Amino acid sequence: MSENYKFFQNKKCEYFPCHKVENEEEFNCLFCYCPLYMLKDKCGGNFKYTNGFKNCSDCTIPHTKNSHEYMMSKMSVVSKIGSERE
């Protein structure tokens, strides 16, 4: 069974790769904008707060070759937060 939907690269992007990595061939652009950003300190990534904003520039979790499985494992938490009423 093909699983090509789990990996995508856009080498024509002017920011490719947007993070420093050892192997550009395994850099995954599928989650260009991390869907876990809203989880704050529960995302599991390597981030820091800079001037009150979450800075994910040192995090490569969304861009690893196998990031799809990790992202999908966190989607129930994202859905729960997204469905909460204010």
Produce the secondary structure layout.
Layout: E1 48-50, E2 53-55, H1 67-83
Antiparallel strand pairs: 1-2
Pfam family, one: zf-like
InterPro entries: Zf-like (IPR007212)
Domain Cysteine-rich small: 4-81
- Low-pLDDT stretches: none
Estimate the global geometry from the Cα principal axes: globular
Largest sheet: 2 strands, antiparallel
- What share of the residues does DSSP label as strand, in percent? 5-15%
Radius of gyration: 14 Å
Helical stretch tally: 1
Spatial ordering of strands, largest sheet: 1-2
Structural class by helix and strand composition: alpha+beta
**Estimated helix fraction:** 10-25%
Number of strands: 2
Mean pLDDT: 93
Measure the end-to-end span: 42 Å
Order of secondary-structure elements? EEH
Describe the structure.
This is Metal-binding protein. InterPro entries: Zf-like (IPR007212). It holds the Pfam family zf-like. The chain is 20% helix and 7% strand. With 86 residues, it is an alpha+beta fold. It has a domain at 30-86. A two-stranded antiparallel ribbon has the order 1-2. The longest helix has 17 residues, at 67-83. The radius of gyration is 14 Å and the shape is globular. The model has no long low-confidence stretch (mean pLDDT 93).
